[in-house]
Amino acid sequence: MLHAHPVIELRLPRHVLGAVALLLVALSCSSTVEPRAGVTLLVTNGTCVPGPCSPLEILGFPSNQPATPGGYWSLDLGAMSGAALCVTIPVSATFRVIGVNANGSADTRIYTWTSAMGLSLGVQAPSAPRIMAAPSTRAFVPATAAGWQIALPGGSQIAPSPLCANALR
Questions:
Q1: Residue 23 burial (CB count, 10 A)
Q2: In this structure, what DSSP letter does residue 129 have?
Q3: Could you tell me if 77 and 93 are in contact, meaning their C-beta atoms sit under 8 angstroms apart?
Q4: Cis before 90? omega within 30
């Protein structure tokens, strides 16, 4: 059986059509994931094989990075000196870029990240300057699972896992 549907024709100026198209694309790409509290990350220290473990600072790099001369914006997720560490990923974080306008007034832009947005991971030695820190993994959205796991350094793929045990914290 063939069904006929009426066709509605809109005649709008080009700039309005462009704005409508952009809005439809943005709506179709927006996530339905809500920020989630209590998301854990089990990090296995990849430096422990074959010898003693090197201490590592675990950093999270939000996907909404501003272009600043000071390097990447990162979240300090924890320091590890043993074979594994369980950390809790924060629900949200903010980063402020403070500048000065030509008239001397402050110009502050606030970037907000939530666990419903992309996050990449990286590690560095605790004594290394933070300005040198950079992500080494692909981005993942923490709120899409209750727990995650990865081996760092060396691992690039974060995998969902059960919540990690509090004993490893």
A1: 10
A2: -
A3: no
A4: no
pTM over 0.85: no
Q: Give the tokens for residue 62.
A: 């939000």
Q: Provide the token pair at 39.
A: 């998301």
119: nearest Cα among 71, 163, 158: 158
As to burial, measured by CB atoms within 10 angstroms (0-12 exposed, 13-18 middle, 19+ buried), residue 56 is buried
SS3 19: helix
The residues that bridge with 22 in the sheet, in sequence order, are none
* Secondary structure tally for the chain: helices H, strands E: 1, 9
The dihedral sign for the CA sequence 24, 29, 32, 36:
negative
Q: What is the mean pLDDT of each run of 10 residues along the chain (169 residues)?
A: 37 43 39 85 90 93 84 91 94 88 86 94 92 91 95 87 66
Tell which residue, 154, 148, 33, has the closest CA to residue 87: 148
Pairing of strands 84-88, 40-45: antiparallel
Q: Give the span between the Cα atoms of 107 and 93, in whole angstroms.
A: 20
Sign, CA dihedral 9-12-14-17, equals negative
Cβ neighbours for 107, distance < 8 A, ≥ 6 positions apart: 98, 99, 100, 101
